[in-house]
Amino acid sequence: RPPMPRPDRTRVMVVANQKGGVGKTTTTVNVAAALAQLGQRVLVVDLDPQGNASTALGVEHRRGVPSTYDAVVDGVPLAEVTTECPDIPGLWVVPATIDLAGAEIELVSVVARENRLNKAIQGHPWVGGADDVGEERYDFVLVDCPPSLGLLTLNALVAGAEMMIPIQAEYYALEGLGQLLETVEMVRAHLNPRLSVSTILVTMYDARTRLASGVADEVREHFGDQVLKTTIPRSVRVSEAPSYGQTVMTYDPGSPGALCYLEAAREIASKGAPDR
Ligand code: ADP
Ligand code: MG
């Protein structure tokens, strides 16, 4: 596959939506794998105690494995808890263990509790601009958030310059988005002025239903250019892949789901980081 040009500096992208089951994890791992296939160097940070992104990327995440928890709660350098994805060259992972479930509460009494993940990511020797980091730099850091607006997601929003919101093409798709966008505004006003909602991706799109196209139209009306042209179809291959410890990009690269995720990744890479 022809590689895409690399960005001048690491793009930190947060995949968030406080609703569960909308495709955050599926989008994180498949966009990450697709970006890696396009010649980008990508780090996935699993910030959900369930560790589903770790599973899909074939990375061990039982208790005791060096993980996001160690970096965020104990301040262990991120590079020390990062492992290479076994199947996908150019892709690295910080796994999440179930310990992370306690972090929401443990962080409450910690100094600068919203800034822990940001500090960890910015302290990684491969995060930064081409001038200071060089060829080894990560082009993308993708953060897979848990389905809540607690301290973990807040840490992600403070750490990221870009936010990607997956929206499921279903009834009530837009419900709860108001609350999410209010949180973004609050973070922008008080904690991270660089944050922008750069990317909206419509997932689990079923072309046979009028409902799905209605939802997609409504999302485009609301968000305009932020919405990727590519939508991700509902596909059994996409949902099967994690049970083999794989992304659909390796499990069935020719399937419609894989091809659409590749196209979505191409759009993200070619659009570039938003202007500040
Ligand atoms: P979240 O991380 O937002 O909770 P997931 O990515 O885990 O959501 O997706 C929820 C469920 O939907 C999972 O079982 C996943 O396999 C399935 N799923 C996600 N995207 C698709 C798709 N395009 N086609 C079919 N199933 C999907
Ligand atoms: Mg998830």
Automatic annotation (TrEMBL):
Task performed by this protein: May play a role in septum formation.
Domain of life: Bacteria
Any Pfam family: AAA_31
Residues of the AAA domain: 11-196
Record protein name field: ParA family protein
SUPFAM superfamilies hit by this protein: P-loop containing nucleoside triphosphate hydrolases
Database matches in InterPro entries: AAA_dom, DNA_Partitioning_ATPase, P-loop_NTPase
Transmembrane segments: none
Family: Belongs to the ParA family.
